[in-house]
Write a structure and sequence with these properties.
With 183 residues, the chain is an alpha+beta fold. It has two domains: 42 residues; 127 residues, Immunoglobulin-like, CATH 2.60.40. It is 27% helix and 33% strand. The chain is built from two helices and nine strands. The protein has a nine-stranded antiparallel beta sheet, covered by helices on one side. β5 and β6 form a beta hairpin. The termini are far apart.
Length: 183
């Protein structure tokens, strides 16, 4: 009888050990999957320097010059604009100076009396700049007004923060490392 009881205890012990080992493996697998998901969801940062290029209008043979820089980090927006989503600050010299701000995905929303952004150059006080919407009706691009004032401050700055309102996302801040602009 003692032998039968010892065999039953040994059998239950083996079952318990086997099931514990199996559960441990499941927990390990889940932890690995969670880490993989967390790593996949982190947006990469970009190495951002001013990029310069030029284009020629085929109809007029006039040259247009551009300087563009990408924001330091991607915006973190909800569906359907989720995923990698950088801002771009572009200077364009085409029949005069234009400075425009664009985002990869999303809608910049101002409204009737609310077409402005707040800009902070380095550690200075934030300044409000009004903006104009593009003629083609694009909602991911705005043209910054008072270009000469903006450019003057931009040339002296190392870092620029731009706060803008996005549709269903509220105010978002784009940060640009603007050092070494040659314009």
């Amino acid at each position: 009888m003692k032998k039968a009881i010892l065999q039953i205890i040994a059998l239950f012990s083996a079952i318990i050990l086997f099931s514990c080992k199996r559960n441990t493996e499941l927990v390990t697998d889940v932890a690995v999957d969670t880490v993989a998901i967390a790593v996949d969801s982190i947006a990469p940062t970009v190495s951002n320097n001013w990029q310069y290029h030029q284009s020629i209008d085929k109809m007029t043979s006039k040259s247009t010059k551009f300087a563009e820089i990408i924001s330091n980090e991607s915006l973190n927006l909800e569906f359907p604009y989720d995923g990698v989503n950088y801002g771009r600050l572009t200077l364009r010299n085409k029949n005069g100076l234009n400075i425009y701000l664009s985002i990869d995905k999303g809608q910049i929303s101002g409204g009737y009396d609310n077409n402005f952004i707040t800009v902070r150059f380095d550690e200075e006080k934030p300044i409000r700049f009004s903006y104009s919407e593009p003629q083609d009706g694009s909602s991911n691009v705005i043209f910054i007004d008072n270009e000469l004032k903006f450019l003057s401050k931009l040339k002296k700055s190392k870092k620029v923060l731009i706060s803008l309102t996005l549709y269903h996302e509220g105010n978002q801040i784009l940060e640009f490392n603007t050092i070494d602009l040659k314009w």
